[in-house]
Amino acid sequence: MNKKILIGILIVVVVFIAGIFLWNSVALSPTSKEEESQVRTLIENFGSKLKEVYISDPKEIASAKIKEIYAPFVTDELLLTWTNDPSKVPGRLTSSPWPERIEIRSIKKFDLNEYEVDGDIISLTSAGSSKDRVTIFVVERDNNFLIYSFSLENPGNTSNQPELPEGIDEGSIRDYLQNNIVSPSFCGKVFCAYDLFGSEIKDNKIYVYLWTLCMEYCLKDGKLIKGSGVSMPVVLIASQIQQGYKITEHKEPMNGSFYAKSIKELFPEKYYKYIFSDNTEEYNQRADRLLNDTEIQAEIYYNLK
Question: Domain containing 106 — which CATH number?
């Protein structure tokens, strides 16, 4: 074989091997503590905002919230994709469960300025918590770390959390609660949040069992002022109509000495532990969380966020 050909082949092989070595050295480039800290801060801050974006809202509202809340954390390209199709965006579907945070399992650098984050979205409800595995890709642009890809391992996975029954959605529950549980007594509008216990079908009607907190908010001098409010367990009853079900009535427990007896008449026994809890801290945490939820809704309604 011609010497020149052999030398040419040898050069190609050497370059190829050197390329593989260089690629591996880049792919396996360790993440510095400073880089890891910035990526971790990005993901944790982003995770804390998930509960503020209701992706079940009408597209125009959901897209506006996605742009407002998520813009500081994601690339322009990803933000455009999400605002065009909110159904594929991480966020909140119902009042309960809700995404509370992202817990990071690992951070790996796989290119000069790109990172892979493996973690879990932690969702909470009064009944406990659940995890949904997520993979997030981060890029550094002009000394700014941004998310450019977000992928759930099992999209739509609800783990062991209670689900809304077919025919009943988050919007219809919120609308009914806000218009029927407590009336505004000042100048404001009522907003409601809830923890879902579960549901069942009886006599061709859907019974939805939940704990709700409703609060009236007024806007005065650019600040929210609380008005009338209530926090209690409620049974919503939906009757069948031509196109599914409609919530037509509700039942509340009686006050005073009749409270416990009425709870036992209205709710299945398996939900007593959520209503008669002796854990004062747990009770207060639920109240604080639901109140915070209503405040976020009010801030959005009054254009304060």
Answer: 3.10.450
